[in-house]
Amino acid sequence: MQAAVMPKPSPASKIMWVAIAIVGAFCLGVVALRRGEPINAIWLVAASIAIFVIGYRFYGKFIEHSVLQLDPTRAPPSVLRNDGLDYVPTDKWVVFGHHFAAIAGAGPLVGPVLAAQMGYLPGTLWILFGVVFAGAVQDFMILGLSLRRDARSLGHMLREELGPMPGIVAMIGVLVLMMIVLAVLALVVVKALTHSPWGTFTVAATIPIAFLMGGYMRWFRPGRILEVSIIGLVLLLLSIWSGKFVADSAALAPIFDMDAKTLAWWLIGYGFVASVLPVWLLLAPRDYLSTFLKIGTIALLALAIFLSAPTLQMPAVTKFIDGSGPVFAGNLFPFLFITIACGAVSGWHSIIASGTTPKLLANEGQARMVGYGGMLMEAFVAIMALVAAASLHPGVYFAMNAPGAIIGTTVEQAATTISQWGFVVTPDELLRTANEIGENSILSRAGGAPTLAVGMAQLLHNIIPGEGMVAFWYHYAILFEALFILTTVDAGTRVGRFMIQEIAGLIHKPLQETESWTGNLLATAICVMLWGYFLYQGAVDPLGGINTLWPLFGIANQMLAAIALMLATVVVVKLKRERYVWVPGIPALWLIICTLTAGYQKLVGPISFTAAANKYAAAMQQGHLLAPAKSVAEMQQIVTNNYVDMVMTGLFMVLVVAMVIFCLRAAIRGWQTNHPTAHEEPYVALASVAG
Amino acid sequence: MNASFRSVGKWAVQTARLCCGVPDYDVYVKHLREHHPERPVPSYKEFFRERQEARYKGGGGRCC
């Protein structure tokens, strides 16, 4: 098949693109090469925009015309199967907004914050080049494949193109990944709310607010989403404002002052109840609030960065690229590429790019804007999160993100340890920051959300000054992340429940009935137990949980991305477009190398789960207790937890290797056949069905 | 100018609704009338409830 001919660019557009390239290169040069003096965040933002624009215009277009060979005259699924509900040809800007809202989550806000321990440069470069050559390629190509296959899901396409067995293997991977995602995200909330009565109160207040909204929408004004969301938002802001009085009150504060373990149990119980309640009562109203709040907060963050133009206080590269960092363990390679998953490349997106979005696109010619462009937007969010973290005082950053086992539990100990690392900070500065945000302590609040919240609060405070406003913005940002994450936990538990019921139905048919209460409660309990186990493990973890669990999440997410890109590679071969096989092939290979190396280092060697388990087991044999364990039973628990993590890592590695073998087999067969063998639906001209 | 403001507003509302899993009601009604005149047209309330249930029926529509 002949590649579509690209239109010749006009001289004016040539000049413009050369200018953008020069500006981008100059800004990137400033970001990458200027040493010794702090640079302004605007350089970084400008460099990112230039790279995104160039990547979109040239590489995105190349993929559209040469690799996917998208055809605007071809009828997409939305037209062919138009049912007015799921399949509807929709305005491209509406689809773009919808797609972006579906892919943007807490992930791109957390990963870059954690990765900032290596300085802002490594994270920036991986986000910029990762998104252009891997992340956006994955989203766009999976969307393109799905468009040509009646908007089928990733699992369905895997079964069709690779065979039934690889499809099942990949789906088990997705279920396990989802459990890890839910646990890690819930842990972010636990970390942010530990001993924070203000935060806990505002998050708890979202439950009655949601009930109120749900009832209002059910009986009083059915379907008025926007109206009820505004009411909800006002109530939310009110709850943030009143949270201060709760925190100051001697009677109320202790009720909302909880340690990590208690919070974990509350979240587990909450997750169970929330996912068996009718959706209109709790899940849906909270979903609406969190969707709007998310978009609003991202816009607010962008505005704050542009208006306050902060200086990056974090060095470009810190000494922690050698793997000795306190926030997460491991060298720059492969752990940077595991830590920043969403934002650079996220396997989860392949599920969305083969879900609702391909059912809405009105034309194949709009797929680049939605698929490739949507992911660039997400990368921009990740860059902003990185800016917010890097514009904090590095001492404050490390105090917030390093585990108590490393920096101690008092501000004096923390300030001494962190100053020894070369980030000079006084106990006073740490106390003052805590006071400003209205919390008792900022120490060891890993998980990204609190750091981002402090960064955002300070940026917003720069443009909207006012007494006590830092504390308000801090709790606003915490509430936003918590609300968003809890909605994901509810919805994820529900999805997990359906998946478990489907699997259980293979063994005992009646369990498959989603309306049956036995099947429903049983599957929900199993699902909650699965993620709840990891959440609880994180809450009692010696290194604070995030340090241990985030790599597991990163490995799993990148594994899914590798699977999606491998599928794209196989399809390119099966379409007999072998000379473009490197487009999805190289990022797939890179992710396979990263996940397998990271997995291997988590299995054997100094930073492995095995080493951690052995350390505690050895201490137990000698009758010692290692912090934070206070009894032999707790020691045993830590050993078991590390063994479980080990098994999970091993499972992910086996999954990746199995998928590599399946894909290689399919690719070789496709290569040897001399005609296209991909399962595309036949061509139908748009002109023949439209109108 | 006024017309473009209105179209931006319409876009925003449609996007906001779709982000919550509720597609355009008018488009659905039009589709029913044109292609399935024999089927009853649901009220907005019924349509909304059906979509709300459908959104959380699995399939997973969000990211981490």
TrEMBL record, chain A:
GO terms for biological process: cellular response to starvation. One of its GO terms (cellular component) is plasma membrane. Its main location: membrane. Residues 40-598 form the CstA N-terminal domain. It is found in: Cell membrane. Keywords: Cell membrane, Membrane, Transmembrane, Transmembrane helix, Transport. The chain crosses the membrane at residues 15-33, 40-59, 125-147, 168-190, 196-213, 225-243, 263-284, 291-312, 332-351, 372-392, 473-496, 517-536, 548-573, 580-600, 646-668. It comes from the Bacteria. It is a multi-pass membrane protein. Belongs to the peptide transporter carbon starvation (CstA) (TC 2.A.114) family. This is Carbon starvation protein A. It comes from Rhodanobacter thiooxydans.
